[in-house]
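A quick aside before the break. I want you to see a complete sequence-to-structure record at least once, exactly as it would be stored in a machine-readable document. Don't worry about memorizing anything.
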Amino acid sequence: MTNSIPTDWKQVKANEICSLITNGFVGKATDFYTESEDGVIYIQGYNILENGFKFNGVKKVTRDFHKKNSKSNLREGDVLIIQTGDVGLTTIVPKSLAGSNCHALIINRFIQEKAFPQYMSQFYNSPVGRHLLKRIETGSTMKHLNVGDLKKLKIILPPLPEQHRIAAVLETWDKALETLTRKIELKKNIKKGLMQDLLTGKRRIKGFDEEWKTVKLGDICEIKTGKKDNQDKIENGEYPFFVRSPHIERIDSYSFDGEAILIPGEGNIGKIFHYINGKFDYHQRVYRVSDFQKKAIGKFIYFHFLQNFAKQANTHSVKATVDSLRLPTFQMYEINLPSKEEQTAIAHILTTANDEITTLEKKKQILEDQKKFLLNNLITGQIRTPENLTVRY
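That is the input. The structure line, written in tokens, reads:
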């Protein structure tokens, strides 16, 4: 690897640039969990994101635990690497989490004059860093990183000023992704609220006041399964091919042309729904809901499925969880149906909300692809940062 990096870069062992590489708390801490406001945040593997944290489900431990386990106390700038499970995922401790405790994480405390923590966090999350960490994993079923092996890990290290510049460039993309992610979550929450209100009649659209009628799905549409199997799919086929998966395959034949909702009869029951209006084919264990009567709008039924189908499917099953759907489950599915005009208005509002989310998710994917390209090329020196780049840390 040294032959492929810039001449002014070097490779060093991790323990040469760290003042500390150690485990967080090892053992069972559940007896010390607390709901007290005085409790100390307890960071675990499931709280770690790539260069960030998720705080839903975060635990707290008692002050007494915190004092007795000073080894796992965190400082601002510490780089945390997941030690067991999603091995190698890395983030950096912000000022707001300084003083927290951690579990099943390796704490890296870098020497300020040698390595910049923000660069090191990006390095470990890069394809190069992940590859190096994977090489020192142990365990066949439960993967694990040993502190001793990490200390000897050889790291690509540019001069300190360039570390700062690389980190600054990548942080720009991280902040953009963070902002976009928050916006997507906000839009999803708004859509969720709209679905809960509009599909139940809790909130009525201005101009509509007719009473809703309860109908069974089997009375307002046709429900059939396909005749194809997975082996019939063709890469880059002309038509969509719906199988028992969120992913839509391709095929060179079609058995239906029109508006339809496609629902797998097995696997991830109540979680996968596709809406289409056009030519397509579908698997023998996928249900096609189509040929809606004049009083029913397909897009309204689709959103109703998203909101209510899983709950009703479980209610009508003899099992605690459904692993397979049969035709009667669909035929007996109940829908509170407003007028055709109100269905159309509701479907339009929810479709608009859906389209906004899809547009944002596409933007996020573009940013993620750009970040991945930059990360891989900046960390290896294939792309160099200009020396006059303004860096603010």
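Two observations worth writing down. The domain at 213-337 is CATH 3.90.220.20 (Adenine-n6-DNA-methyltransferase TaqI; Chain A, domain 2). The longest helix spans residues 340-379. We'll return to this after the break.
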